[in-house]
Amino acid sequence: MELLNFLLYLIVAAVCAGIASRIVPSVGKNGFLGSAVLGMIGAWLGQMWLGKIGPSLEGIFLLPAIVGSAVVIFVAYAISRLFARFSKGKSKKPS
Known about the structure:
It is a single chain. With 95 residues, the protein is mainly alpha-helical. It has one domain (9-91). Helix content is 75%, strand content 4%. A two-stranded antiparallel ribbon has the order 1-2. Strand 1 and strand 2 form a beta hairpin. Helix 1 crosses helix 2, helix 1 crosses helix 3 and helix 2 (31-50) crosses helix 3 (62-91). The longest helix is centred in the last third of the chain and has 30 residues, at 62-91. The N and C termini lie far apart (59 Å).
């Protein structure tokens, strides 16, 4: 994979993750790099789960990528909330 193809892949994955983050309620912003990483993971998982359906751009099938990104973003949000809840419980010291 050439550098330009990889950069285009990152951009498409970040856009898919951005769309997916709008679908999943109450999820904060991840930034471009976070969205790109979650989008790449989501695109990969989405294509494994749903196959190669819908339009594609730079080798990413958009419908599975958006659905997969939404699932990955929701799981990442749930895990971060779990760790936040766990760390709040541990930081309280008895008086």
